[in-house]
Design a protein that fits this description.
CATH class of the largest domain in chain A: Alpha Beta
CATH architecture of the largest domain in chain A: 2-Layer Sandwich
Structural class of chain A: alpha/beta
Largest interface: A-B, 59 and 60 residues
Number of strands of chain A: 17
Number of helices of chain A: 14
Strand content of chain A: 25-35%
Oligomer: homodimer
CATH superfamily of the largest domain in chain A: Dihydrodipicolinate Reductase, domain 2
Distance between the termini of chain A: 48 Å
Shape of chain A: elongated
Largest sheet of chain A: 11 strands, mixed
CATH topology of the largest domain in chain A: Dihydrodipicolinate Reductase, domain 2
Chain lengths: 435, 435
């Protein structure tokens, strides 16, 4: 194969960048055979040229300034591994696309927030803007949606999109410990960042869901329409009650095609413990897609880490080397559907509600009267008998499970219940999904 | 979009062919937007023009002869849905490729047996030979391996590749019924063919495994090197004992890269009941891939049926309409690796062995002596106490589980044990996999 090499410039040499250097070297011959030409990193950009990254960077052109890398005329593709929706990552990608240079990125925030506009620029320039690594790491879910399922009309897409949250929830269930303790441990193990808010508040999952929903439904990516709740408020008590009721708690991102438009939401869910998604534990991710013709698919694997993410970046590079050019969002920008987004207030579902109440006569009557007045129908109630010796007025937990209820009615009921004298502390409301 | 339509000729109008007609019509506008041009069936070929297939075929050119369809100059792609490694299906695909016409097929037997040669012809002609629908129906596993994981060196590929067998084994476990009864029911429900041997003897799964192994390891497809055993000999007793031991029985296809070459085998396996693959039940398929960098991935979904299979065929058509042309086996024929195949005799693993023996003193000593002499080390033994009233010499089952043992030693031991006077009927030997 005498074809000229694809020359790659990598901006950002953290764990994934170093992993990409290792992968492209270790499998250079195989990748050249598959791509039809060598895929070679020729330039890199990072802050500290002296840090030991565990890979040999000798012979590569080194840039301190990402914009200078984008301007290097001897590069065919820029790989952006800096991260963040704004700042230098955005400037780099814009600069590269403006020069009609292909871009591969693992940056979910950038693609979720600016992906529609960036795609239009890439389209005008006839170059690739690829982001397989931005969602679910090593699982080739972008390719599955944009190409593998391109013929089907998808009804639902989503799943477990954040490994940090899934690790925390799995460990809480396995150990019975509370959120804060498990988060601290996850930080010590490197599974959670020092500032964990992007992960545990659901933002990261929402970025990914916005990208998946755009591809699945063929509409412009719209991060702002995703409803987001994180896992900070999930207590050990909720994990315990969920187990008792035959559920596991997962942070899910779910986007659905409904009669009124696209519903997209990230929040903790109770899922039946026999559902396939409930079996996905620890740092693993899983994406579930449901289509009219194809039925239900689940793709499961490692959603983060140097190896899986580098594999996804390199797959995009091989596509570019092969000359494949699929529209960034599956169809040209002009051909995407303008689908309405359905606000969360219009959601309907089953709910789990945990309350801490004073153990005194009439409490249940008071609470169920509020639910009745708000039009919330109860499916079941869980209240453990207190020891005979329990002090009167002691705080005890009760758990209520509802039939299908409008979100609006449920929120109104919870607000009123939270204000009752007999209710101690904030109610915990978690939606129930079938899986 | 003013681009000219991709004109498709479909040979074979069974369930999948009719499904493809429905799918391309139902989603015509969306598919045109994604493919950049309309994808339109213009000609069909089937035996009986009068049979009601539930789809309107008016206005399509009708051929009785598949070779005439292949010669139609007003067709860009031939879709082969006839089936079988030889005969008219093979002749049609050869004729189409000889005319430099792209081919899409769902024919796993043809691709497993003749895929290397057909790919070379397609490659010379610069046309696509696509077969996403040949393996695992609606799961885009061919694309995942050939493109999504193209950068990684895979170590293991396989899974549950035959929905008929998985349905039978699942139903046996759920109902406690025996193989013949469940097979008859599966036939009545349409989950098994009138002649079920291709499915239940493991041939279908072996065709698919041969294809997966070729893509995963980048070597020419080699069906003859796949070791094949089916599920006819799995009894209700084995299902029961497996459950008792914490396992489920699955027909798995497994291909592994070992130090001595590629091992590829299809046979029933005991897998731990908590393993993800054990949770894949009924007609569902699942493919597990394990790579050096990407780790372990599992893709699960419907492996057969009109909708899923048509979705896969249509995805291939969209790729062709988009002008994507990836090498048939992931790299050009000349660049594929000549990897040795390891014969089954060199396999090593753990085994489950069920024997029916005369309930008399010394039986266990006799059997374990044979195992010792053959170098087979026992991990555990299961023997249920008989009722006091059991007649002396009554036939009773015992189950032995071994430590890792060479296949050769195990087969020698089983042959000798089968010849013992105290052993009644044929021993049941099932390999144990970790999942």
């Amino acid at each position: 194969m005498a074809a000229s090499a694809l020359r790659v410039g990598v901006a950002g040499l953290g764990v994934v960048g170093a992993g990409l250097v290792s992968l492209l070297r270790a499998n250079a011959e195989m990748i050249a055979a598959r791509a039809g030409r060598p895929v070679v990193i020729t330039a890199v950009c990072a802050r500290d040229p002296h840090r030991d990254r565990g890979v040999d960077l000798d012979g590569l052109r080194w840039y301190d300034d990402a914009l200078a890398l984008a301007a290097d005329p001897a590069i065919d593709v820029v790989v952006e591994l800096i991260g963040g929706a704004e700042g230098i990552a955005r400037a780099l990608v814009e600069a590269a696309l403006a020069r009609n240079r292909a871009v591969v990125t693992a940056n979910k925030a950038l693609i979720a927030v600016h992906g529609a506009r960036l795609a239009a620029v890439a389209e005008r320039g006839g170059v690739a803007l690829a982001f397989e690594a931005a969602v679910a790491g090593g699982i080739p879910v972008i390719k599955a949606l944009r190409e593998g399922l391109a013929a089907d009309r998808l009804l639902r897409i989503g799943g477990i999109l954040n490994g940090t949250c899934n690790y925390i929830l799995t460990t809480m269930r396995e150990t019975g410990r509370d959120f804060d303790a498990v988060l601290a441990e996850a930080q010590a193990l490197g599974y959670a960042e020092a500032d964990p808010s992007t992960d545990i508040d659901g933002i990261d999952a929402a970025h990914k869901l916005a990208i998946l929903a755009a591809l699945a439904f063929g509409r412009p990516v719209d991060f702002d329409s995703v409803h987001v709740e994180g896992i900070r408020r999930i207590g050990a008590a909720d994990i315990g009650f969920a187990t008792e009721l035959g559920y596991r708690i997962k942070l899910l991102g779910i986007a659905r095609r409904t009669e009124r438009g696209i519903e997209a939401r990230v929040h903790p869910c109770l899922v039946p413990d026999r559902a396939p998604i409930a079996q996905v534990e620890g740092v693993f991710n899983a994406v579930v897609a449901e289509g009219e013709f194809v039925g239900r698919l689940m793709l499961e694997g490692r959603g983060a880490g140097a190896g899986p993410t580098a594999t996804a970046v390199a797959a995009d590079l091989i596509d570019i080397a092969r000359g494949s050019l699929v529209p960034v969002w599956g169809a040209s920008s002009g051909a995407l559907a303008r689908l309405t987004s359905v606000p969360m207030a219009e959601f309907r579902g089953d709910y789990y509600l945990r309350l801490t109440v004073r153990d005194r006569p009439g409490v249940i009557a008071e609470i169920t009267a509020v639910l009745r007045d708000c039009g919330v129908s109860l499916k079941s109630m869980l209240q453990h008998g207190q020891a005979r010796s329990a002090a009167p007025d002691e705080a005890v937990p009760i758990v209520l499970v509802t039939h299908e209820t409008p979100e609006r009615a449920m929120q109104a009921a919870v607000a009123r219940i939270a204000g009752l004298d007999v209710v101690v502390g904030p109610p915990a409301l978690i939606r129930i999904e079938t899986g």
